[in-house]
Write a structure and sequence with these properties.
Layout (H helix, E strand, L loop, with lengths): L2 E6 L4 H12 L4 E7 L5 H8 L3 E5 L5 H13 L4 E6 L4 H7 L5 E4 L4 H12 L4 E2 L1 H15 L6 H11 L4 H8 L3 H15 L4 H10 L24
Parallel strand pairs: 1-2, 1-3, 3-4, 4-5, 5-6
Length: about 230
Amino acid sequence: MKTQILLIGYHQRILADALSAVFNNIKDFALAGVVPISDELLDKIRVYEADILVLEFNSLSFLNLDYIKKIRLLNHNLKILILSDLVSRRLLEKWLPEIDGYMLKSCSAEEFIFAIRKVSASEKYLCSKVATSLFKQEQQSSDEIILTEREREILVLMLMMENNHQIAEKLNISESTVRTHRKNIRHKFGTSNQIQILTYACRERLLPDSKHPICTNCRIHCAPALA
């Protein structure tokens, strides 16, 4: 069965038509429809029953984020890929937990298809331009963070989705010790900031090469918050 993709908010019809032609030539994807953003959008999402929602915004805002949350309540399994312009780290951090991928409109068609495939496979995706910008913003603050060898080991396992019990077993330490190290890591970062942690792990080459990248500039697949 083909993955159904619904395009939302495409203001340029010629672009929507071009994307329609692209999806029609990919055997495992199909375009469910192209609809504008309107008051009836939630009802239209119910009708189309798409697997992936691609939303184009002229610019992101906290108001748009509320709209995304409503879509999430409507269908928790729906994958959401955003196309927009470059935004601040602060704003994107608010968006990341609610979406599956984020791309700039200036990204290539090849990267767009790559993003669709990653999101379809339940992976997080940031386009290379967004990731590069965010990592540069975080570089200065993350440069000053120094972790002990044990903290680095625990951070790697955390980024690989291990819970406290699994980490304790692998490192042959108690769960209370793991919790203490996690607390110290949060203190050193001064936040549960996912992007800052990704920046540090990427620069320090902490993750194995087998992890899938979220962009062409970073080997990291995705990571949970440190909470």
